[in-house]
Each structure stands twice: as structure tokens, then as C-alpha cells.
Amino acid sequence: MGVLIAVEGLDGAGKRTLIERVVGDLRGRGLRVSTMAFPRYRVSVHADLAAEALRGAHGDLAASISGMALLFALDRADARDELSKLLADNDVVLLDRYVASNAAYSAARLGQSADGEIVDWVGELEFGRFALPAPALQVLLDVPVELAAERARKRGELDAERALDVYERDGGLQHRTGAVYRELAERDWGGPWWTYRSDDGPAALAARITEIVGR
């Protein structure tokens, strides 16, 4: 079985770019690598419903913190068999967001910390009831909130499909989410964490993953 690595961080933190570079490095080391991104827009009806709600559709759905969290959790639950197959066929599976993103954003919306009830509920729901595989490592891409927000804004200007949603437009929410993410990392919530900073470089993360794989 391969190892599951989740890359976490705010919208605009640079998760996709980092993953692309790490994938190239790992494949250069002879490892079999696959990726998956959550939410699975245009693949999962639950992810699409959540995205539509964040842009004003479906009445007051977006106002329901647990309702939105459940949609994102159901998206991952539907991907469980595919994840299991990817882990069976590869040495490494890199995820752009995973369960911790649900915990961080839900807690931030409620004004709770990482030891709040909603974080426990998300963990019990996704790792417990839905039996999602635990990550071997969760990587927090910790960048300044202002930088992440500017990147997300520019990305939305270039791609209409990635225009800012209600979460991304809420600067206070982004600050609170970043704080919860750091608390989750400090607590090793859901498995071991590593805080990645820009001066680490993709090669450093690739080396750490290679150590976990044992090659």
C-alpha cells in the first residue's frame, strides 16, 4: 500500500503548484505517484452543490455550517474506493486538501478553536463513520493570509470558474481558518503534521515523503 499525503492551506496558498513540483521530484526518484484534489468539482454532486451554495444558490444552505461540512465530507466518502485503489497502485498519493480542511473551515466559521466540538464531529464523521484512510503526513502550507488572498483574487480574475466564493471573500474567516490550521498542526490532529514554509522548497517535502515511503 502507498502512503497518503495531504497538503492543506488557505485558498491561494499555493497547494496545487507545490504538489505539481513535488510529484515531478518523486517520480524522478522512481516512485509511483498519483494525486487527487478535494472538493471534486464537476465530479461529485456533493461538491458541486456546495460550490453552488457558496455562490448564492440553494436558499440558505451556505448559512448551515454543519450542512456545508456534511456535503464536503460526503464528497470524500464517495471517493473512498477510488482512494483505496490509488493507494494500492502507487507508492504515494498526494491530496490537495483532505479532512483537516473541513475541520479548519468549520471551526473558523463557528469561532471555535481546534479543540472545539465541530472539529471532533468532523473527525468522527469522516475518519470514523465514513472510514476514510488516515494520512501518513499532513502538510500545512503556511503563508501569510494577505498573500494567499491576493493570489486567490488574481486567480479568479483569470479564470471565471475560480472566481472568489463567499468563503474566499471573507478576510476574517481566512484569518481564523489559518489560526485553526496552525492549532491542528500543533496537535497532530488526525495524524502527523509538518508545517511547510516557502524557504523549505519542494525538494525538502519530496525528501520527507521519500523517507516515509522507506526508499
UniProtKB/TrEMBL annotation:
Pfam families: Thymidylate_kin
EC identifiers of the protein: 2.7.4.9
InterPro entries associated with the record: P-loop_NTPase, Thymidylate_kin-like_dom, Thymidylate_kin_CS, Thymidylate_kinase
Molecular-function annotations in GO: dTMP kinase activity
Reaction equation(s) it catalyzes: dTMP + ATP = dTDP + ADP
Top EC class of this enzyme: transferase
Domain Thymidylate kinase-like: 7-163
Keywords: ATP-binding, Kinase, Nucleotide biosynthesis, Nucleotide-binding, Transferase
Domain of life of the organism encoding this protein: Bacteria
Family membership: Belongs to the thymidylate kinase family.
HAMAP family: Thymidylate_kinase
Described function: Phosphorylation of dTMP to form dTDP in both de novo and salvage pathways of dTTP synthesis.
Name used for this protein in its record: Thymidylate kinase
Organism of this sequence: Nocardia niwae
Lineage of producing organism: Bacteria, Bacillati, Actinomycetota, Actinomycetes, Mycobacteriales
